[in-house]
Amino acid sequence: MELSEKLVLALPKGRILKEVMPLVNKAGIIPEDDFDDPKSRKLEFDTNIQNLTIIRVRAFDAATFVACGAAHLGVVGNDVLQEFGYSDLYSPLDLDIGHCRLSLAMPESEDSADPREWSHIRVATKYPNMTRDYYAQRGVQAECIKLNGAMELAPKLGLSRRIVDLVSTGGTLKANQLKEVEVLTHITSRLVVNRPAFKTRPSEVSYWIDRFREAISDGTTA
Q1: What is the dihedral angle through the alpha carbons of 162, 131, 64, 92, rounded to the nearest 10 degrees?
Q2: Does some domain include residue 2?
Q3: What are the two backbone dihedrals, phi and then psi, of residue 50, each rounded to the nearest 5 degrees?
Q4: Per-residue pLDDT of the chain (222 residues; tens, 9 = 90+)
Q5: CA-CA distance, 160 to 195, in Å (whole number)?
Q6: Which domain covers residue 77, as residue numbers?
Q7: Do the bridges between strand 141-146 and strand 120-125 make them parallel or antiparallel, or are there none, so unpaired?
């Protein structure tokens, strides 16, 4: 895909957007007023930087936009990076935001068998690749049922006794009578770059990597 003339920064919607915007602002990027208007239906926003625009997309899609060259930089959780393994994504910075973990959970009412004794596991998850890889390294066969949301319903409705999902505070699990049994990996959000863009526009891309690095060093994330 041919890269656009303007640099495009892909940001994820939701909780991570609130956490990353202080860093974006600290890096010197201020989006137009519509960006903060809840009534606005715009998805692409001008900024105070003449040749830089922001797109606001779903977390999984931010990685796709950057990997395919539709955006040049983006903010993506390393859960997405590990799940999809895009070869055209370069991740130069851990932004130290979006802290959570990918965990195995099951109903509170059930006994927690020792995970080290498992030979087979059936789970509902948004992350089948990560789940299979994690358990394969331990000699466990993971049968994964792919869901894109409402993971906590799977045990309640008999789809699967166990789920693998992102956990932050554990409040959602508790509200659905589930307990965290095992942590597969810890997650943070990263600044990612399109590799071809890094090769063809090295000075521009490197400039913004440095600005974000300085923003992290300043420690102003709230």
Answers
A1: 130
A2: no
A3: -55, -40
A4: 344 489 999 999 989 999 999 999 999 999 999 999 989 999 999 999 999 999 999 999 999 999 999 999 999 999 999 999 999 999 999 999 999 999 999 999 887 666 667 789 999 999 999 999 999 998 999 999 999 989 999 999 999 999 999 999 999 999 999 999 999 999 999 999 999 999 999 999 999 999 999 999 986 444
A5: 39
A6: 7-98+188-218
A7: parallel
